[in-house]
Amino acid sequence: MTNQSELPGFALQLPPFDGETLFSWCSRYHRMTANGRDGATCLQLFGDRRIGTAHDFPARLDALVSRSDGTLGDAHSLIREHTILPFYLPFRCLRLAEESERAMRGTNIGGLKYRLGLQTSGLGSAHPLKACPTCIEADQELHGWAYWHRDHQLPGAWVCNLHQTPLLISPCKLDQRARFAWTLPRATDLSVPAGLPMGIASHTYAHWLMKMASMAAELLRLGYSTLEDPVRLASALRQRLFERNFASPSGRIKWRDLEASLDFIAKRQLALPEMQHVADRELLKAQLTRALSGRSVTHPLRWMIWCSNWFDDLRDLKAAYDRADKHQSTTDTLPDHEVVSHGPEAWQTTVLDQVRTEAVSMTRGAKLAGVSYNTFAAWACALGIEAARRPQKVNADVRQCISIRLLAGEDKTNLASEFRLSMETLTRILRTTPGLREARNRSRFERRRTAARKEWHELLASDPCLTTKAARSIAPATFTWLYRNDREWLKSSSHALKTSVSTNHAQQKMKKKVERRSTALRQLLDLST
């Protein structure tokens, strides 16, 4: 009899339900085929005994499509309609979205969760399986199956939008013993997550949790990179805070007026199990500052929190994002690691143009723009407009000397001590001299790269027998810097290194086993004689 796991494909017509996760469909297929082992089903579907069993970001989807002869559709439609990956991609660039799909279609997702920002978000990267008890009964009555709904698995979704009942969690996939198991929801296996009853008990929290679940489902269906520009998101949020009287016309946040609202948001966060540990006003203030500065989003839940309190829904946020001035969009020209600060609005740009043509002075322009002189001078510097100098402590010669030494990469603290200037003065010179900060960053980067390359080259030359693992353990900081910033050079320079071979020493074990048996036989022969 042919082993079912060895079949090149499968002809079982088992169409996925509307809104069903791919993991749920595979679990139903496992039940239908009556495979004794979970690994046998995984091998038949994905061509591997383990890879493919992930319930959130499964890999080897190209293999699944090939083995099913396309009965489930192509890999792109499987990702879009039956996994939770699209939940994370509206806030990410199109390049990362394409890389994420390629990772799930390939043999292993690798560091996908890290690249999506989950492991550095402070909210964790786990996605516990969740189900609605009422949905389980209704699905069993209608389809004969209880299955995992994709909308229920999203971060921030803890209420069923259809039945308005709290979702329960399954211990499967959280328990390492069931890590590679195929499973379907059963009411007897589910439990209440910690902290959720307290939030559901209040009608206010229940309504807010419904809104969060609705926004999570709405975010799932937004297109890739729909909200990718963090600067425009910051502009939309700042404008909404101004409309709520939490910001001045110039965009300055009224933190004292905002404290009560942040306290209210912190209380709401206690109703979300994944955010209970960050339910603090000061942490919220830091996260809001990050969002308003135009820095990239680490987790969609952060923006869902702001949206649930200051916007009607995601459509309202999308409309505000579309109205935000595209002049502020600098994400296409800046490296990913650059921090983008809040830039000028469209009407403030016209004032900068007047300063460029010398129609108004820099001081008058700052007043017309409604910002401080230093902020306006920094905006002008970014456009190549140099402010007129009226030196008090720093004359032209001193300023030129400081600029040259800053360009050479010298530390600002040493310069401040030598010239008896404050750090603020040196920072102002750095920000208001056109091209100086960018040139200084490039100079410091080149110096750091040269030093790292030299140290790594000397380490390799010191011992020709070094393996990559050994060299990395000797100079971990240098290896990490080169891996992150100069990876191609690191690969080429380390090509000649010996590679440590991972082995279980089977041949050596077998040799010793034979020797022990030979010794035992000789001892028996000696006793018999």
Question: What does this entry look like structurally?
Answer:
With about 525 residues, this protein is mostly helical. It has six domains: about 5-110, no CATH class; about 130-220, no CATH class; about 230-325, no CATH class; about 345-380, no CATH class; about 395-435; about 450-495. The protein has 25 helices and two strands. The protein has helices spanning about 20-35, 40-45, 60-65, 75-80, 95-105, 110-115, 135-140, 195-200, 205-220, 230-245, 255-270, 280-290, 300-310, 315-325, 345-355, 360-370, 375-380, 395-405, 410-420, 425-430, 435-460, 470-475, 475-485, 485-495, 505-529, and strands spanning about 130, 170. Helix 19 packs across helix 20 (about 425-430), helix 21 crosses helix 23 (about 475-485) and helix 22 packs across helix 23. The longest helix has 27 residues, at about 435-460.
Which strand-content bin applies to the residues? Answer: under 5%
Strands, total number: 2
Q: How many structural domains can be distinguished in the coordinates?
A: 6
Enumerate the spans where pLDDT stays under 50 for 5 or more consecutive residues.
Answer: 1-7, 197-201, 327-341
Helix/strand-derived class? Answer: mainly alpha
- Bin the helical content: 40-55%
DSSP helix count?
25
Strand order of the largest sheet: 1-2
Main sheet characteristics: 2 strands, antiparallel
Shape: flat
The mean pLDDT is 81
- How far apart are the termini? 52 Å
Write down the secondary-structure element order: HHHHHHEHEHHHHHHHHHHHHHHHHHH
Radius of gyration: 30 Å
